[in-house]
Amino acid sequence: MTCAMPMPLEIVGLGQPEVRFVWDEGDEDVWSARALRIMCTCAYCVSEVTGAKLLDPATVAEDITVTSMNLVGNYGLSIAFSDGHSTGIYRWKQLLANRPAKATA
Asked: Where does residue 91 rank: exposed (0-12), middle (13-18), buried (19+ CB within 10 A)?
């Protein structure tokens, strides 16, 4: 028996330094745009041959924002950033496996 992959009901972050995902099982995650940019796995950011990270996190601005977001099939989200990068696909599975720590009050 397979469990269905959680899907986002809401994604908010256009023009913002953070992206909020509200998942259908009731959880909510808030990612900084910078953290999402750094975790990009496109061929510009990760070697297709070796799997080595090519993106130096030090080159990603602290104040980076999201300039556009588009759903990709039923499995992910394409995000464009204020630094001009737009080739990454953020898969739901990847986002769920690497959830940011929740802030505690």
From this structure: middle
* pLDDT band per the 50, 70, 90 thresholds, residue 30: very high
Task: Give all domains of the chain, ordered by start, each with its CATH number.
Answer: 8-97 (3.30.2020.30)
Residue 66 class from Cβ within 10 Å (0-12 exposed, 13-18 middle, 19+ buried)?
A: buried
pLDDT in tens, 31-47: 999 999 999 999 999 99
pTM over 0.85: yes
